[in-house]
Design brief:
4 helices, 2 domains, mainly alpha
């Protein structure tokens, strides 16, 4: 076994451990959200739109019940990007996010893990969800959302 394999294996194992623990935390948030839905006697889930043309007032509660759906979505798409890069056989540019995500979903489809996804759907996932959402949620140019308790709150 080569030293490079050991480092790669160790790195991926660490990433998996973080991912597994984060998923547990996100699951706990979902459980808490569902308990709050029951307390508020909602007849449907607050994050599942019922039917094709369901009005949003039926599914967006006030005050909101957070589930961290944006970070969950970004995490899943980042994992698809990362794994797609690792399984590519050409173009070792890790920044080729769109190509990486397409590679991931094509490989998953070939293994029967997911249904067929059209090119348009893949572009929408990357360009709108992955790239669009991430830069709205975590914008560039020192405009990031701060969430650490030691960062002072700036009051105007």
């Amino acid at each position: 076994m080569s030293n490079t394999f050991t480092k790669v294996y160790r790195h991926l194992s660490e990433l998996k451990q973080y991912f597994d623990e984060d998923i547990k935390q996100l699951h706990n948030l979902s459980v808490e959200a569902e308990i709050e839905e029951q307390k508020r006697t909602y007849p449907i889930s607050t994050t599942v739109k019922e039917g094709l043309n369901a009005p949003y007032y039926l599914v967006i509660p006030w005050p909101p019940i957070p589930r961290c759906t944006i970070p969950q979505s970004l995490t899943l798409l980042a994992v698809a990007d990362y794994l797609g890069f690792l399984i590519k056989t050409s173009n070792n540019d890790y920044r080729a996010t769109e190509e990486n995500i397409i590679t991931f979903f094509r490989k998953a489809e070939s293994y029967g893990i997911c249904n067929s996804i059209s090119q348009d759907q893949l572009l929408l996932l990357n360009r709108c969800a992955r790239q669009g959402m991430v830069h709205n949620y975590l914008p560039k140019l020192d405009l990031e959302v701060s969430y650490h308790v030691r960062v002072p709150i700036i009051r105007q």
